[in-house]
Design goal:
Elements: H1 10-27, H2 37-45, H3 51-72, H4 77-112, H5 122-133, H6 137-146, H7 159-179, H8 183-195, H9 204-207, H10 211-222, H11 239-255, H12 270-285, H13 296-307, H14 309-330, H15 342-381, H16 391-402
Helix pairs in contact: 1-3, 1-12, 1-13, 1-14, 3-4, 3-7, 3-10, 3-12, 4-5, 4-7, 4-14, 4-15, 4-16, 5-6, 6-7, 8-10, 10-12, 11-12, 14-15, 15-16
Length: 403
Amino acid sequence: MNDPQGSRIDDIEVLRAFAVLYTIIGHVKSLFFWGNDTLYTVDQYFGLWTGVDLFFAISGFVIARDLLHRLENADGDEKFWRSVFAFWIRRVYRIWPTSWLWVLVITILGVVFHKSHMFGHLTSNLADFVTVVMQVANFHFWHCQVNHLANECGGAAPWWSLSLEEQFYLALPIAFFVLRKNLKYLMIAAVIVQIFIPRTVWSFGWVIRTDAICLGVLIAIFSASHIYRLLEPTFLKKRWISAAFLALMLFLLAGLPSNWDGKINPVPFSTGMVALVSAALVFTASFNQNYFIRNRVLKSIFLWIGTRSFALYLIHGLAMFVTIAIWRHLVPLTTQFGGQYTLRFLVTYLAILISATELNFRFIEAPLRARGRVAARRMQNSHRTCIDEPLALSAVRSIKEDA
């Protein structure tokens, strides 16, 4: 690839923006709890939870593009495992502070507004927090959904996908250590095994699905090959063709899946088809040739959304319930909410979401990412041997020194 390993690819950030926008739009009917005919009509024809699968494919590509390159160049087992621990340290700094902060905020709000239960019960929110910390939230929310145990899960449902990713990235370096160049065959096998399996929303197969992530990893591996550049979709350099391609891919991403709102499931294995569409978008974006959005103003907006998509993903649901709580406090108790409040709720919601996201990015994400890079570099460049100091202890000390 022309881009240095680990450098930002703007087209990938644009895809992150589409992914989080799909997720937000798919959930926004919770904000307009009195009912919105347009949103209910959308649910009859489209399933927007597929934004998560696009996130998965992006994540697999971005992580593998940097990590596998580092592991391939690691000389000897000690340097290999130092690279692995450095990767895990970067993820701890990148993911855990924001993740833990906002699930803790939900828990605190649940205590403050315990009479209304708008932010869940303390017991269920604590259960959420425990499973988020232990990186098993996908199993937690699956258990609640299939057993109809609504009171046992709180408001941290979006965290399920973070747990799945962390499980995958705990296993990926170990798989590479064992398989090395044969890792691609494991990824191919994982895709083939899963892709035709029916996986309805909140089924067990749905909460452990990794086909989109594996496809992202395969794209990263393929991008280092000689024929990668030969397959660049240069026909997308024509503006109208690229616009049509993007529109088609986004339509398929929304039109393929089933949902709980009466949408027809085109094929039983639609989740696997969504993974393929997500991979096609990521493959196109991997060339970083500005194939998706060319208008400078619009692209700057999408880049802002994309670079802050992690916080947007975690905060968007909470911001909806904060908006509802604010308006219920501002108006008389006898107020009947309806369509006349749509604009007011929307403006309030966007103000809260954008403000919280930007504050999180500036004061939590960006600074801790930088500190994570320093801690990871210290781990990777340390000359102490495994006998002098176990790698796990060294990793912990690196984090403590930067805290």
